[in-house]
Design a protein that fits this description.
The chain is mainly alpha-helical and 101 residues long. It has a domain of 46 residues: SMc04008-like fold. InterPro entries: SMc04008-like_domain (IPR023163), SMc04008-like_sf (IPR036810). Pfam families: DUF1244. It comes from Rhizobium grahamii. This is DUF1244 domain-containing protein.
């Protein structure tokens, strides 16, 4: 493998992140609870990681602002348009998959 510069690595990671965010926006049929149950993270987790990275670099970003970056719209709007009530099975799987510390 060719050696990447730090700048190239950052550019490629940013491009992959943008593609992931767009994919999640396009797949608004996929519920966050299903993402959590299958992958252990969801859109909210991604927005939290984004906010934490911004804050670590000294850039204050609110939870609502970081969620809008990931969802492409205010979170409440996305919920009203796309989020369904979780089924008892989804809730049970979520409760079972919560990491116990």
């Amino acid at each position: 493998m060719s050696e990447l510069t730090k700048e190239q690595q950052t550019e490629f990671e940013a491009a992959a992140f943008r593609r992931l965010v767009q994919h999640l926006r396009d797949r608004d049929d996929v519920q966050n609870i299903d993402l959590m149950n299958l992958a252990g993270f969801c859109r909210n987790c991604l927005s939290n990681w984004y906010r934490e990275a911004a804050e670590a670099d000294g850039f204050p970003l609110s939870k609502d602002e970081s969620r809008e970056i990931v969802y492409g719209m205010p979170y409440e709007d996305w919920k009203n348009l796309h989020q369904n009530e979780a089924s008892p099975q989804q809730k049970a799987a979520f409760a079972q998959n919560i990491p116990h510390k």
